[in-house]
Amino acid sequence: MTTNEPSTRVTATIVFESMFGATRRIAEAIGAGLRSAAHVEVVPVHDAGGLASADLLIVGAPTHAHGLSRPQTRADAANWVARAASHLHLEPYYDGDGVREWLAAAPLPARGFAAYDTRADMPRIFSGSAAAGMDKRLRKRGAVPLADYRSFLVDKDSALVAGQVEEAEQWGRLLGARLLESADTRA
């Protein structure tokens, strides 16, 4: 878990699930972009059980089998790493509950949420999107989106495509600006 000193009184929490590190790297980049606007916490989903509500909740997960990971797809990730020719390394706690399970009882944000995923670099119709599922689940629970959900792309080897980290940081700055606007209009 990483935090920073607040520059304002608004708070943002980024909860992520990551198998091979790409989704974590995007969470960290979004957090870097947000830091000038809010106190930011970046938290892996396995540490997110007791989180309090923040002004902004950002949730990220890898796309597995066209949507959010499930216990079987997380087990499949371990099998990919076990292959002799694999260059992949699993993140800690890859086999615990994922974002799908956490969202059912996640604290709703005070001002808004945003969802992102990492997915294969191909048309969304072929890869699916975990972010679409997170967005739908949070809206169904009454949360209000601060931005449209976003996908960040990985190549066939699960490495982030060039420029994705920079785009994530830029998206974090955009979310920070929107968060401050929402704070100003409610003050």
Automatic annotation (TrEMBL):
Domain of life where this protein originates: Bacteria
Protein name: Flavodoxin domain-containing protein
Organism: Microbacterium saccharophilum
A single GO molecular function term of this UniProt record: electron transfer activity
SUPFAM superfamilies in alphabetical order: Flavoproteins
Record InterPro entries: Flavodoxin/NO_synth, Flavodoxin_CS, Flavoprotein-like_sf
Residues annotated as domain Flavodoxin-like: 12-176
